[in-house]
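Issue 218. Parser rejects a valid record. Input:
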Amino acid sequence: KQLVGGTTNKIIMGWFKESYDKILIRVYGFRSEVLIDRSQEIENMDLLSKSGLGSQLLGVFNNGICYQYLAGQSITREMVSSPNIYPLVARKMANIHLIKTEERKNILWDRIKKYIDLSPESFQDSNKDSLLKK
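Output the parser choked on:
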């Protein structure tokens, strides 16, 4: 079953015999590696999984990955402000920030510069162009 909602990737859900034992196969979008460091993404997924905070990475292939499906739902604006939900989100975020990692160079500004450098100066579509220039 193909899932919807990804920006550039294609995500397919599959299972062998029991539908509760689902996996996801993500095929990377065309040239998405220009902005996303896939080896770092895989390392982060593995670290989160080993910390009990993410899906188990099941396989890596040239243009995608296979990983465990975790049932859930996307959080909405209403849910974020719910007293029943936001403490749970805050607790999980705190747990993520407690994960011990190696000290690394901050790449945020390099990534932002790369994104800006890849952004077009203008669009042929006048609606998109006017949004860009606002």
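Fixed in the parser; the record now loads. The helical segments are 38-50, 77-80, 86-97, 108-118, 126-132.
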